[in-house]
Amino acid sequence: MAKGDLFGPEWHEVEDLTTGVKTLQLTDHKAHSHHLYFTNSGWYDDNQQLLFGSDRGGSSNLYSLDLRTGEYRQLTDLEEPPGSGSGAFQSTSVNPVRPEAYFWWRNTLVAIDLETLEERTLYTVPDGFHGGGQTNVTADGAYVCVNIGQDLSDRIPMDLGAGYVGMREYWAAKPRCQIVRVPTDGGEPSVVWEEDSWIGHVNTSPTRPNLLTFCHEGPWHLVDHRIWMLDLDTGEVWKLRPTAPNERVGHEYWFADGEHVGYHGWTEGGSPFHGAVRYDNTTVGEYPLSHTSTHFHSNDLNLIVGDGNRDRPFLLLWRLTEHGYEGPRVLLRHRGSFHIQAVHVHPRVSPDGRQILYTSDPRGYGNPYLVEIPDVETLPLLEEVEQPRS
């Protein structure tokens, strides 16, 4: 297997035994494959191509799937770094105005032309720091924004991809962290924000080139505040959706309008909810949930998808009504293990709102899946579905 190689389709349809819904398993190989992290869209070329990462061939590489034919193409041919695990390409992002993607390789940020497969080095992390966090492109395609953190590996062992080892210790150390804006044309990078707090999940607005969210990473019940907004034009930073004591809010993502940010959380009393807030905190819409999930995604408030959890391994749908969220209704049983980051389900609604992309490993190996969203009212309520045996 080599860069540029084209392979025949592996996809096939699978009928869910719980609901009868048919889902399309996109890959089928004795190695983990996965879509991008749920805050990053992997669709490009007028939504006809989809990026995914895979460990096939004994090394993690980036691939592109043609959603018209099922054929896939190997885009990179990279040597596996020592000690690396699956999921190296989850943080990849796509330029919204030209066929180019950006990914971390060791401590180097790389741009790849998705047509010619030419690679360019855009940025190298300075000594004393480490990269590897989310990459996200501004809405005008001019910059890739990334976060880097102080390298404390000499005293704090970390493996966030396999059980969040070292998470609490790194948070408590208050590492020096930076948000770096890197020109996609190869210009000089600039540090646009830095502080002595663990920064993660840099997410750019899909419509406003000057806005991005980031989070104070760490155990949710211990961080000072999770979701922050940064104006790249002015350098101003502010809390998004201020929280009360003992409230927990996070797993933020931009709605398709680029104006609102979705999130989920728990009230002071421990009750789950989902909501959205405008980037300037002027409008907030929040609704209680009867059940929660590990992650949520949506293009707006009208229909949200959650991935359940280990005890309830279902794709769940909630529909907004005048009385709040109705549901959840069970779309299918994904049977994801959530064992490592590469096989987290991380559902994401497609740009046209008609499908849901997710990853699962019901037979041992992770694979990305696409499922059409049916008439929600035809699906069973969670209470009507027999819970899986432990």
UniProtKB/TrEMBL annotation:
GO molecular function: oligogalacturonide lyase activity
GO biological process: pectin catabolic process
Stored InterPro entries: Ogl_dom, WD40/YVTN_repeat-like_dom_sf
UniProt keyword Lyase, yes or no: yes
Residue ranges occupied by any Oligogalacturonate lyase domain in the UniProt entry: 1-375
Keywords on record: Lyase
Lyase listed as a keyword: yes
Domain of life: Bacteria
Name this polypeptide is given: Oligogalacturonide lyase
